[in-house]
Amino acid sequence: MGKTAVIFCSASRTIDPQYNEEAKKVVRCLCSKGITIVSGGTTKGTMCVVADEAAKYSNGNIGIVPRFMADVLNPNLSRICWTDTMSERKEKMRELGKDYAIALPGGIGTLDEFFETYVLAKLQLYSGKIIAYNYNGFYDSLKEMMDTYVEKGMLDSDSRALLHCPETIEELEELL
Prior knowledge:
Layout: E1 4-8, H1 17-32, E2 36-39, H2 45-57, E3 61-66, E4 79-83, H3 86-96, E5 100-103, H4 108-122, E6 129-132, H5 140-151, H6 157-160, E7 163-164, H7 169-175
Parallel strand pairs: 1-2, 1-5, 2-3, 3-4, 5-6, 6-7
Helix pairs in contact: 1-2
């Protein structure tokens, strides 16, 4: 398998549709570079959009799904990896999405997955690029918080530099 990217994103069905439209563009960008998509693999929210779009444009579309979510399994996956817990899910997502960890706009689940991966990158236990796709300023407050952490001595500047926050598809493409 070539390069892979794990995408952390919303499971909500009530988010503004602009975020799902932008998610499609992100997936198409990754697929155009031959990057295999790893995602949550369900039919919920942006996770569904990501899996469906990857099925159209990719030769690899891997879903990491806890067994208790079998009833919302996306049928458009090229490969399914079952887990027993959410913790195992995150670990498998990182293992298979080894080159890039991309957080699209999402909720607390997205942040949980993303921050754990960011911490592992800081500890040099995840070697992929850490990307918070800052579409329409969604992650501006995250960037400010990380800058405050550096200012207050809670985070070193090298660790802060691990976090990339592209605002456009073109900026994302430069990181690939």
